[in-house]
Design a protein that fits this description.
By secondary structure, the chain is mainly beta. It contains six helices and 34 strands. Strand 1 and strand 2 form a beta hairpin. The structure holds 2-acetamido-2-deoxy-beta-D-glucopyranose (3 copies). Belongs to the peptidase A1 family.
Length: 440
């Protein structure tokens, strides 16, 4: 489907001149009198699919486009086959600086489908949009269009601000399979120049940082540095502790170009403790070897997924620590469930042993309390919210949505570190508490 880049040196030269002029013209359209310190996107959890969705205003005229948030996604991709109408859409041609930025190694020389239209132009930089929920990748053309996002001072939304030439990939309608109702694509927040965080950073010159604060109802993604103020006036950024983000040299995307590194967010979990007692694990699974193993964070997995031997060790250790709580028949996809009537409750959820992901040293850990470890399966059943990822998963530990809800996670791309808050419920707030009402 993708063909090698073609074109002589001479035509390449002309293209480059043309495109640098073009981007100069379009950048001059941007409103430079207002520089946001950060941007904010509201995020809603879809109860049916457990996906975290957001809306971005896109195209000319603007329409709200609903997207599933993919923390480890490579870029924004949207369905261009069905009713993509926009006077500001531009294809990104091969051999342009934008195409280079995307790390594409492919070019759609000729689009034989019904074109020209968004997603079908000749001589267009070609990418491989990925839907990790159905483990499917396709090819798609790189394009640019205007988007508009709310700015924020960290405590409230401010004026909406546009990025005239946001880079994104088109995808066929079929790639929307498995996504929540009304969703038209995925918002990739990965560690790569054309994912949304670094594009916003380049457009507005704010810090190369973004933060996610998800909840079971509504939450937010912030682009730029804190404060990230949750009602009643609590700056959640104050509670962050930091751990290095680990590089994985081999892509973990569904499809990728040769030599691409992973754009997902890996952290160095060294061991796991339950009630301060280490769980015996095969430590080699926790490090990354030839792209396999290690621990990453994902918003497209509703629950944390553990390689089988880790899953067994963690659940057995947990059960040992709660001997006095009666077990009940497991409710899929979980394997360990309890009678909720025998479990007390605390400010941070069910009173169960805390689970610590121990990081670069014994004193650095991400503590998981009952509200993040246990899942209410109805009928007075509480289940340990981890699932068995099988014997040879690509990544040994995938920290999923339920475990990061009401935790602030800040991804500092310049310093290559993750700031994590543990449960904000301890701090008398939560991720649903950002005040999305603009100033009157
Ligand atoms: C630029 O943004 C500022 C702040 O929102 C606004 O007051 C101003 O009118 C805008 N200027 C243009 C030319 O759009
Ligand atoms: C692409 O080029 C081919 C051959 O020159 C032409 O037939 C076709 O109409 C063009 N398609 C688009 C989408 O411009
Ligand atoms: C530990 O995991 C590694 C990597 O999967 C595997 O090669 C090794 O056999 C495992 N060791 C034990 C004792 O299970």
């Amino acid at each position: 489907m993708v063909s090698p880049i073609q074109g002589s040196m001479a035509s390449r030269f002309h293209l480059l001149i043309f495109f640098s002029l073009f981007s100069y013209i379009s950048h001059s359209k941007a409103n430079t009198s207002f520089r946001p310190r950060a941007l904010v996107l509201p995020v809603t959890k879809d109860p049916l699919t457990q996906q975290y969705t957001t809306h971005i205003n896109k195209r000319t005229p603007f329409v709200p486009v609903k997207l599933t948030v993919d923390l480890g996604g490579q870029f924004l991709w949207v369905d261009c086959d069905k009713s993509y109408v926009s006077s500001s859409y531009k294809p990104v041609h091969c051999d342009t600086s934008e195409c280079k930025l995307s790390r594409s190694q492919a070019c759609t020389v000729t689009c034989f489908r019904s074109g020209p239209r968004p997603g079908c132009n000749n001589n267009t930089c070609s990418l491989m949009p990925d839907n990790p929920i159905i483990s499917t990748s396709t090819s798609g053309d790189l394009g640019q269009d205007v988007v508009s996002v709310q700015s924020t001072d960290g405590s409230r939304p401010g004026p909406s601000i546009s990025v005239p030439d946001l880079l994104f990939s088109c995808a066929p309608t079929s790639l929307l399979q498995g996504l929540a109702r009304g969703v038209r694509g995925m918002a990739g927040l990965g560690r790569v120049p054309i994912a949304l965080p670094l594009q916003f950073t380049r457009a507005f010159g704010f810090a190369a940082k973004f933060a996610v604060c998800l909840s079971s109802t509504t939450g937010a993604v912030f682009f730029g540095d804190g404060p990230y103020v949750m009602q009643p006036g609590i700056d959640a950024a104050k509670f962050l502790t930091y751990t290095p983000l680990i590089k994985n040299r081999v892509s973990t995307a569904g499809a990728y170009f040769k030599g691409d590194p992973s754009v997902e967010y890996f952290i160095g979990v060294k061991s796991i403790k339950i009630n301060n007692e280490p769980v015996a694990l095969n430590a080699s699974l926790l490090s990354i070897f030839k792209g396999n193993g290690g621990t990453k964070i994902s918003t497209v997995n509703p629950y944390t997924v553990l390689e089988t031997s880790i899953y067994k060790a963690v659940t057995n250790a947990f059960v040992k620590h709660v001997k006095d709580i009666p077990r009940v028949a497991p409710v899929a996809p979980f394997g360990t469930c309890f009678n909720a009537k025998n479990i007390g409750s605390t400010r941070v959820g069910p009173a169960v042993p805390q689970i610590d992901l121990v990081l670069q040293s014994e004193s650095e850990y991400w503590r998981i309390f009952g509200v993040n470890s246990m899942v209410n399966a109805g009928n007075d059943v509480l289940c340990l919210g981890f699932v068995d990822g099988g014997l040879n998963p690509r990544t040994s530990i995938v920290i999923g949505g339920h475990q990061i809800e009401d935790n602030l996670l800040q991804f500092d791309l310049a310093a290559s570190r993750l700031g994590f808050s543990s449960s904000l419920l301890f701090k008398q707030t939560n991720c649903g508490n950002f005040n999305f009402k603009p100033n009157a």
